Amino acid sequence: MRLKPTIEDVARVAGVSRATASRVINNAPGASEPLRARVHAAVAELGYQPNETARALVSGRQRAVDVIAVTYGSGIGWLGTHPYFSRALAGMMPVLEGVNAQLRLHAVAQETAAEAIDEIAANATLGAVLADITPVLAARFYRRCRRTVSMVPTASSVPRMEADNIGGAYTAVKQLHERGRRRIAAIHGPALNPCAIDRRTGYRRAVRSLGLTDVSADGDFHRDGGYRAARQLLEQHPDIDAMFIACDLMAAGAVQAITAGGRRVPDDVSIIGFDDSIAAVCTNPPLTTMRLPVEEMAAAAARLLLEGDPEPGHRQRFPVDLVIRDSTRN
Amino acid sequence: MRLKPTIEDVARVAGVSRATASRVINNAPGASEPLRARVHAAVAELGYQPNETARALVSGRQRAVDVIAVTYGSGIGWLGTHPYFSRALAGMMPVLEGVNAQLRLHAVAQETAAEAIDEIAANATLGAVLADITPVLAARFYRRCRRTVSMVPTASSVPRMEADNIGGAYTAVKQLHERGRRRIAAIHGPALNPCAIDRRTGYRRAVRSLGLTDVSADGDFHRDGGYRAARQLLEQHPDIDAMFIACDLMAAGAVQAITAGGRRVPDDVSIIGFDDSIAAVCTNPPLTTMRLPVEEMAAAAARLLLEGDPEPGHRQRFPVDLVIRDSTRN
DNA sequence: ATGAAAGCGCTAACAG
DNA sequence: CTGTTAGCGCTTTCAT
Hints:
- 2 copies of one chain form a homodimer.
- The first copy, chain A, is of the alpha/beta class.
- Chain A is built from 14 helices and 12 strands.
- Chains A and B meet through helix 4, helix 5, helix 6, strand 2 and helix 7 of A and helix 4, helix 5, helix 6, strand 2 and helix 7 of B.
């Protein structure tokens, strides 16, 4: 079988030099119309496709955005079951498409995260989007590669996309309160997750300023954890009439626990989730939720990287808006 | 700021030749212990990280698996809302991790798919996993790059991972029938989607062999389509007592439509979905469904690529198993 | 066991 | 406008 044609072959067939071939292929100026035509013909005849690796090496830029996800213990099952990550990818791909940039996906195990991160940083080109990296690791990465954007709250110098998690949580509780609920419990996310921390803060502030009681349980940002937390909450505080839940997946579990316990949503217990992920519309009833604009954030992150090195401390703020569905409608 | 150190720098600092440095870095034989130590020291001192691009160019192999997704019309919103794709990614990443292979993600617009596919094929290294490519496009890709694996039914010569969609659909209907249901409707997927076609076939065979009536509606593999199809089905055939739905996302919508119409799941209408995606456990009640082992299929596809060129027509079969949850429990 | 040298395929000065 | 010539950073013969 014939080897893949190189630009050398194209040049030979077209009867020009490699340089000329390169010029017309990259449609750079400095090539006459007749030669252009000959080169194009040769390209077509040979089915020539530039070798991106060689291009990248010589030009120093490979035009790839790296996306890093850290996997905790149990493997990366969460990538397949947690909508967050795929939303981020979905947001980035359209902006990368058409500008000849590719997306590289890295799953790094928490235990070896440090080394893995060093290697990724060393080979970064357009830069990296840190989807859920802890502040410490993010800072480490940033030290090795300035072209970095975090999508979660992180070390202060790292450029980031910032969603108003605190405000969102506050709004959620306030909304529940306005609808007349007074025993508003919360199911929070992992204690160390930066987003979860902010949402917890928002809940606490709202509870305090509205004169309510803090009734909290801890979840893990997964459905099962939401189910368990809700059941436990209901047992310990049977008078709960609303729940603010820090993630839709947990909210889906909570809805199941609540109805399994013989109560109705929203009549007995009103629910507001967080994220507005696919889970929010799959539950029954569909969830009122605080929309985290993941796609927009990811797209903006990609665009920022495309523009060049972001300023240290650069930040772009994103609103977290209330999306009303049936889990609060009654 | 200091430029990134090259192997040249390492060699100089260690006082050896580039060749020797290369040998120890790749821990190839042919370097004495004392020199190895000096090189390692130099690497550590400089924080040297090999440039993967240069490596790839010289060795001809970049160790990357390309994943291609075609986007239809409206953009790739579906990637963020449809669990299939992220499950495939989740399946591949663990097998790629640790073998120093990376994952490249490509979203190609349907209109320009042909050219895009040619370019990807030209730059493929370990090969490509075709997640949802039509047979025609898959064949085209395969013509340009033998290292290809499709995850959906496709042109006969293209190596593939084959799930028993027909058998799964058949099993689902049979299960409903065994539970005493007799008016078993179906909501199918897109007319041209190869998986949807097989599931439709399975439904038809079951209906015929069980002596039931074919009551079908068409969906789009999304929640909204499932909602609409279910509502329409219920209006036109109020005596329906069960539904086989070709995808969990549609099933989630159908559950909502059914309960919104005042009927209960599973008491009045029993439901079996397909996929066993995150949507199946977010609905209320959780869905009985036919499990498509997407993660396993994707992992096997990645492994196949890692092994070298798959045989033409290579196929690996995967079962589609019944997972019983509450939507059929009564 | 070690080093010198030849490229991988391409782009980008630099000459002509 | 066109061609010649250096490399990009690395691996890999091939001598030594």
